[in-house]
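User: Please predict structures.

Assistant: First:
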Amino acid sequence: MAGNSTIKTARVGAHVKSGDPLAAAEASGAAAVQFFLADPQGWKKPVEHEHAAAIRATELAVYVHAPYVLNLATTNNRIRIPSRKLLAQHAEAAAGVGAKALIVHGGHLNADDDPAIGVDNWRKAFSRVAEESGGYPVQILIENTAGGTNAMARRFDRLAQLWDAVGEYGVGFCLDTCHAHAGGEDLDGIVDRVRAITGRIDLVHANDSRDGFDSGADRHANIGSGQIDAAAIADVCRAAGSDVIVETPGGVEGQGADIDYLRKSI
């Protein structure tokens, strides 16, 4: 894999605070940057970013993460319908800052719900936007998640069902190493297993895990300080050949060290 030409264009960066993401990226030596455009635990529509013009003009690879509250799979209308609306609003805002993509978690159902309903809810969200406006104004990347017994993107057998429903709409995939490990998916050979389902990996979230394999705990750690072998994380990034974002703690120093390790290792 070391000779893969895609590696040469892959950029390594970090998830940073949204106030001045370009300054934060520069401080940690990031070549790519990810941030929120609104409260990740809230339902408010994003407003225009004060540094929107500079972000649009940057040579960095820019990614936006959707709020965690979004759940397009749920059978609860009071969550699912606002989730569709908020996803569309964040997609528009992400396009407004020139983002390459908007990342959204796969969501989950209640324990007794039929997973086929969650799959169909995802399909309906994409098909409606496709019919009304031709699709979202920015690439949507579905991210695998760590926890939940009835999650849409924790186990890859469920991810395959989801992809059968939404893959035709041009959706992309974001592979999170911590989420995979904590969700019970072995990192060995994971890139090939994902591509067998999705045909693509558009972004890697390169995170170590504070907790053990299949723990279901979404707790990130700096590379080399958690439960995942650092070389295994680098191997995933190398094999994927996509841009890489670290969502690790420690601010500029911690993330900067993680970026430096990955840049040297992939």
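Second:
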Amino acid sequence: MQARSALFDLYGDYLRPRGGRAPVAALVKLLAPLGIAPPAVRTAVSRMVRQGWLHPLRLVSGPGYLLTPKAARRLDEASARIYRTGRASWDGRFDLVLLGTPVGRRDAQRLSFLGYGMLDERSWVAPRQADEIDTVLLEAGVAYERFSASHTAGSPGVTDVVSRAWNLDEIGRAYEEFVDSQRPVVTAINARSSDEAAYAARFQLVHAWRSFLFRDPQLPTSLLPPRWPGLSAATFFDKHAARLRPAADRFVERSLAAATRGGRVGFSEP
């Protein structure tokens, strides 16, 4: 697990609900159970500051970092997709984006994160609009046009569009592998396990689940194949994320309190 990715998970799942800020000492302590060393935390924090995701600030306990508005919006959007809250029903229309020129790998990943699939190098489609796509394409310097599209009588069915834009077989296998790999991690945690162990197991679970934000466009049920593995995987995730949450929260609260009492710990302010 990379330190930068873990920091996004930490802020999104635990620190955002607690004001989106934390002292450096807490960041070190909260990433330690994941095997991430203080120097890696420092490098990742500095990089996120340069990229506009974190803002340095002085807390009572010493140096700390606050989410920027851009980061807070991104994490709130990601959280809504991870926990599938506020999801609207599908109206039968796709958001179709036609690009003037193909985008590079980095911007293609950003489009995938927003739920868009590629029909060809210059045509991307999503089952619902994502407002951030305009910002992504403007930052990429790519001319584009957007359309709200639906099928007309006699045209190929929506399943043809879906199969061209997304490899559902591959995504389905990834969901099955997710459950197979995470089951021994989370079921090993029981009432006798420490809060730290529960926190580490839940962190790994959420981190693995978050990867589907870049792979699964979260298609409406009407566009999914029968016995879609993503549904049973979501049930598995919800069950264990909720079961481990109280112990994980206790570990986070103790770590934040200890960092506040201890002041500057782990490394100095970048």
